[in-house]
Specification:
Helix content is 64%, strand content 1%. A two-stranded antiparallel ribbon has the order 1-2. It is globular, with a radius of gyration of 32 Å.
Length: 654
């Protein structure tokens, strides 16, 4: 097998973990792959994956080919750029064109294969892998793995066994563990079940491999009707601690007419309400139904489970290894109905920023009735973090519609609406969540939606309702710093119950002494009470923690002004203006400009005279007079004092 390109390097052509892999173009035009300092964690039972930069990079050779082969430079460079952007579809297209120009280079071949598989273009990847030279000295690891998976899909098990003998995998491509699992299921395919069981028993003895090998042994035994043997294997928590393992154990017990034991097992699990498939299983068991075993129907399904588990093992790190997506796609190719494969692919694509491709997978899950509420909550959170608020709201609405009795779906929808400043819309959504939760036995489950509804009510102007919700949440969670802080700040900011608000905020500071938001609340409470010197220290600590927050800097300016440090106040107000962003809805830039023009004292006096709000346009500078040339164009005669500004024509916001 060609050593020039390992699967680790092939996978590094795409950067599923965005910060982890990137193309670097050094002087001279030859590119090398730079990878994160920490290598990915190995799949249990296999040797560690080699770092991409530990393998000889072929780019110098490709640079020479680019100069010699007309038409290669464009698609090669475009493919590299698309790969670094995680644009798998474009990378597949351009690498494919590069291979058309130079079909002999394994680096370009694997670049095309990685991109095609990542984009879900399995037919094209299989065709390309099948067209490449075969044999130990010619085959790259990825091409060999794709051909092996395709042989399994065709159920050509003798050919699968032959490839395992001819081209065993290196550690970077799964090594002995992956080969052993392939061999076991291929042996099942040719009817040699006892040899397959022995292979899996042997693999289970390898360090870190007991869970995956035990689970596969259980599936293999159950697939031929040995439910007693399957149940024994699944008694090991390592083999049945994941969702598919739980389902397999319940189905096996039901086949053994042990429904009561299966129900008792399900009742030991936490948060079963997050997994509708488990709720459905429990209801069927409770009704006396013998649940069929359908986790695997043939060896292809077993191998699909293997590949998805390998992909999942590579997802469990701070930076997901790019091979995770390849394994998940190959698992889906073997079993297109496997929900875990589709869900993993969708999550990996979303993490890579490929939201359109991810949405195709999420849509397919919904259409198949395989939506996983817990996974959907993670997806919604990821969309919010990516500032895709419309998509997050749509996903939350679909989850709530699909599972109307699932309180967390309504909480998630309320949170998205609230974060999108749709406070009035969020209130009835939280009402729905609370109706569901208040019917349950645990009152503690209601504290967060009470707190969230309180925020929505407060921002909607329903202060009495907000106070009631804050107090109810605080009764349940008296040491929750966010509740203490928000309620205290709400009172302080409205200039009501100042002493009580200060006490609440002080308690929040005790719980979270380095929280910039809470320190800002403490300083603002002192400000409202006229204790300006005491306000300076917590406000300065808040600014130190949240130096880029426009509102915090605005507050610092107000406190400096009232403490007699007027020049410093003006500097803070100028900084607040420079930091302002449209999403800073709590920052009043016109008020800041007025303070810079006439000072805080004049602004406060104007607000008192106007019922608590600043008169429109107060303290703002007059617009600059139009230049003479501009006046001539408009037909207006310039005046010494400049044109009179029409009402409401204020300087633009930054």
């Amino acid at each position: 097998m060609k050593p020039i390109l390992s699967l680790a390097v092939a996978a590094a052509l795409i950067s599923t973990a965005l910060p982890g892999h990137a193309w670097v173009l050094p002087a001279g035009g030859a590119s090398v792959l730079a990878q994160a300092e920490s290598p990915p964690a190995p799949v249990p039972g296999s040797a560690p994956l080699p770092r991409a930069d530990a393998v000889a990079a072929p780019d110098a050779r490709i640079a020479t080919r680019v100069n010699r082969l007309p038409g290669l430079a464009g698609p090669y460079l475009a493919a590299r750029q698309a790969a670094s952007d995680n644009d798998f579809t474009a990378a597949a297209r351009y690498f494919g064109r590069a291979v058309e120009v130079d079909g002999t280079d394994p680096f370009l071949q694997d670049g095309a294969l990685v991109s095609m598989v990542s984009a879900g273009q399995m037919d094209q990847a299989v065709a390309l892998a099948g067209s490449l030279p075969q044999g130990e000295d010619n085959t790259t690891e990825l091409a060999a793995l794709i051909r092996r998976v395709d042989l399994a899909r065709q159920q050509d098990w003798p050919a699968v066994l032959a490839t395992l003998e001819q081209n065993p995998s290196t550690p970077s491509a799964g090594g002995p563990l992956l080969d052993g699992l392939f061999r076991a299921w291929a042996l099942m395919g040719v009817g040699r079940a006892s040899e397959a069981f022995a292979e899996l028993d042997q693999l289970a003895g390898a360090t870190g491999a007991a869970g995956i090998a035990g689970f596969q042994l259980a599936l293999a035994k159950a697939s031929v009707g040995d439910y007693e043997g399957a149940a024994a294997a699944l008694n090991n928590p390592e083999a049945s601690s994941h969702l598919q393992g739980v389902i397999a154990r319940v189905q096996v017990l039901s086949q053994l007419e042990r429904n009561d034991e299966a129900i008792a097992f399900l009742d030991t699990l936490d948060a079963i309400e997050n997994e509708p498939v488990l709720i459905d299983l429990r209801q069927r068991l409770q009704a006396g139904e013998t649940v069929p075993f359908d986790i695997v129907e043939d060896p292809r399904d077993g191998l699909a489970q293997v590949l998805v588990i390998f992909g999942g093992a590579l997802m469990g790190n701070e930076e997901t290894d790019p091979l995770a997506l390849l394994y998940a796609r190959l698992g889906q190719y073997l079993d297109p109905t496997l929900p875990d494969a589709r869900l993993m692919i969708a999550q990996l694509l979303q993490s890579a920023g490929q939201f359109d491709l991810a949405e195709q997978e999420f849509d397919a899950l919904r259409q198949a009735g395989q939506m996983r509420p817990a996974a959907e909550l993670v997806r919604i959170d990821s969309l919010v973090r990516a500032d895709r608020m419309e998509a997050a709201e749509a996903a939350a609405r679909m989850l709530a519609e699909a599972y109307p009795g699932y309180a967390q779906a309504w909480v998630a929808l309320g949170d998205v609406l609230r974060q999108n400043d749709k406070f009035a819309e969020a209130v009835p959504v939280y009402d729905r969540a609370l109706q569901i939760l208040q019917a349950e036995e645990d009152p503690q489950a209601t504290w967060f939606p009470l707190y969230a509804r309180a925020i929505a009510r407060e921002r909607s102007g329903d202060y009495d309702g907000a106070d009631a919700d804050f107090q109810a949440a605080l009764d349940l969670q008296p040491d929750q710093a966010p509740i203490l802080n928000y309620l205290g700040y709400s009172w302080v900011d409205r200039n009501v119950r100042l002493d009580e608000g200060l006490d609440l905020i002080k308690r929040a500071v005790e719980l979270r002494p380095d929280d910039g938001y809470i320190l800002d609340s403490l300083a603002w409470a002192y400000y409202r009470l006229g204790r300006y010197e005491e306000a300076v220290e917590p406000m300065e600590r808040s600014v130190a923690v949240m130096s880029d927050d426009s509102l915090v800097n605005d507050h610092m300016g107000d406190i400096y002004w009232m403490a007699g440090r007027k020049r410093e106040a003006e500097i803070q107000w100028q900084r607040a203006l420079s930091l302002y962003k449209p999403e800073d809805t709590d920052t009043d830039v016109d008020r800041i400009r007025a303070k810079l023009e006439v000072g805080l004292d004049a602004v406060l006096e104007a607000e008192r005279a106007n019922g608590g709000t600043l008169p429109e346009g107060f303290g703002l500078p007059e617009p600059e007079p139009a230049p003479a040339a501009e006046a001539e164009e408009t037909g207006e005669a310039p005046s010494a004092s400049g044109p009179e500004a029409p009402a409401g024509n204020l300087p633009p916001r930054p």
